[in-house]
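Lab notes, practical 5.
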Amino acid sequence: MIKAMDLWLPGYLAHKRRKPSRDRTTHILLAVCDHYEPWHQATRGQEEALQRLSRWQDAYPKVQSIARDCDGLPPVHTFFFPVEQYDNLVVAELTKLCSSGAGEVEIHLHHDGDTALTLRDQLVRGRDHLAEHGLLSVGPEGLAYGFIHGNWAICNSHPEGRFCGVNNELSVLRNTGCYADFTMPSAPDRCQSKKVNTIYYARDTGTPRAHDFGNPVRACLNSPKACLLMVQGPLNLNWKRRKAGVLPRLENGDLTEANPPNLDRFKLWLKSNIHVEGRPDWLFVKLHTHGCKPSNMNMLLGGKLQEFYEQVACYCAQKDGLALHFVSSREMVNIILAAEAGEEGDPGQYRDYRYKLRAVR
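Output from the prediction step:
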């Protein structure tokens, strides 16, 4: 079915009917999660990967330079690095980029035909490689990381069984220090979960597509044990950007050269209404991109992303009842957990609520 709508449309319609009232300031937590692959279509190997890092080091400070959120902080990027492509020099340069204030690093992994054991070995090896550079975070149980699955196929969800192989992937992730998954949405890819526009806990059932189901995170309610936190980005229909002037296009929060971020898309992301149940005034907007794809680099570093940040910061500052916070994916999870614990006030104070950076940004 077109754009995997048979998978996600029922959940989308059910979510759309829920319109919580807000009688106080709405805080918007905005994060960009980058499937950051320096070797994407690179023909010159490490040399080209390092050149891409150099371009980010030179250009991203300018992207950050104009906009500030209500806490006085600039936008940041979360670089989900493909650990199966680990290279010491490349990660060292990525560490320098983050140390300059650009953002934080988490784990991205492409894999196929694995078992729980071989997957665990890859995650632990990749986690430890990044930790050697002072990257990732620590939580109550030690070294911790956020995760995005390569090719979208989390929990063996590809319809042909490709790009994973591990039915109990959620448990493997949790047991190796993963504090949250940020893979969804993937539509129009058929790895898309049935659950959409939700922050929830997925329980490992030992079967494919366990992420189709789960309990929404709720304020003042303890999280279920042995479950993985799933943080979804917006999935919506964009009636202002139609195909052939008739059919709405899919809005999945992907930032690309063909579909760069803008204020209209931002307003649509807010309508996806992603929040912790019982705390409707904290809205979570998790976007994604492929920041080392050459065409996307031109968009992200060539002025369009900077213009978007400036527009959004001005829009929120001038509109009564809106407060914008630029956050990393880790900070977003900390604020989610603070909401779950029933914390009140400005969510910006909870950026380090549970998981803290090993190296100060």
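Observations recorded by the TA: The chain has a mean pLDDT of 94. The two ends are 44 Å apart (CA to CA).
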